[in-house]
Design goal:
Order of helices and strands: EEEHEHEHEHEHEHEHHEH
Number of helices: 9
Largest sheet: 8 strands, parallel
Radius of gyration: 17 Å
Distance between the termini: 23 Å
Low-confidence stretches: none
Structural class: alpha/beta
Helix content: 25-40%
Strand order of the largest sheet: 8-7-6-5-4-3-10-9
Mean pLDDT: 92
Oligomer: single chain
Strand content: 15-25%
Shape: globular
Length: 279
């Protein structure tokens, strides 16, 4: 199971972990604009922590289709005050920073963040892999193809998705391991440059792309594979999210990245309980 060493502490978990999403963006696909201002941020964090979140994933750069590409300066201006406030209010919670920029990651780690969650897996900023590697920072390495500008347009994967994801992970993990032992978490990037069929396929056999037996994060919360399949709005996709999170847990997911913490925590408890009952 997951083990994270950070800030002189070791966090060990004997069951899957729930990561609550905290977007401080005005334009994220599901909750953009909901949490503007530190009071709203802290209130939502309090709700997620009280519901059982193990990690808060803080992001300031929306990556939805057609998103605005903000500057490094603006990303820092959004994320650093929120990070400082969360760290002060919740000194013991693990905080992940959702960024693909090395300079943002660097400053956030200095301000008390624990994990860097990079949607580009080191592709969008050539400084990211060396920074993570040299400093042995807990790192979520997500699979993606193409560039920042074309991440929802270029090279849509429609076949051999497991092989392509595994090859990407092997390449990027090996780059990190050149710097010695690392703390790497793999994210197959469900919803990024893949057909709906491929996205569902990634939930079926997590071990196929589990390079080096590393932990796997699944982020499917309210994503299009749910609402397009069911022909509903993203805001109506909670039940579908819980169903697919449960499938991911049964298939071995180590972390669930979610908007709705309570429901994810309940899924973890039930799946974990069922799996450990004697016959």
């Amino acid at each position: 199971m997951l083990r994270i060493a950070t800030r002189g502490q070791i966090f060990s978990f004997d069951r899957p972990v729930v990561m609550g999403i905290m977007n401080v963006t005005p334009d994220s696909f599901f909750d953009g604009g909901k949490y503007q201002g530190l009071t709203a941020v802290l209130e939502h964090c309090e709700k997620m922590v009280s519901e059982g979140a193990d990690i808060i994933d803080l992001g300031a750069f929306s990556t939805k289709p057609g998103c605005e590409h903000i500057s490094v300066k603006e990303e820092k201006e959004r994320i650093i005050p929120a990070l400082k406030a969360i760290r002060k209010e919740f000194p013991n919670i693990l905080i992940s920073i959702d960024t693909f920029r090395e300079s943002v990651a660097n400053q956030c780690i200095k301000e008390g963040a624990d994990i860097i969650n990079d949607i580009s897996g080191g592709l969008f900023d050539e400084k990211m892999i060396p920074y993570i590697g040299k400093n042995h920072i807990p790192y979520i390495l997500m699979h993606i193809t193409g560039t920042l500008e074309g991440m929802h347009k270029e090279e849509i994967i429609s076949e051999k998705v497991h092989e392509k994801v595994r090859q990407f992970f092997e390449n990027q993990v090996n780059k990190l391991l050149e710097y010695g032992e690392q703390q790497i978490i793999l994210d197959p990037g469900i919803g990024f440059n893949k057909t709906i069929e491929c996205n569902f396929g990634l939930l079926k056999n997590l071990d196929y792309y589990r390079v080096n037996n590393l932990p796997i994060l699944i982020g499917i919360s309210h994503k299009s594979l749910i609402f397009k399949t069911l022909n509903i709005a993203p805001q109506e996709a909670l039940n579908g999210t819980t169903v697919l999170n449960t499938i991911a847990l049964i298939n071995g997911a180590d972390i669930l990245r979610v908007h709705d913490v309570k429901e994810a925590v309940e899924a973890v408890k039930l799946v974990h309980f069922a799996a450990h009952q004697s016959k």
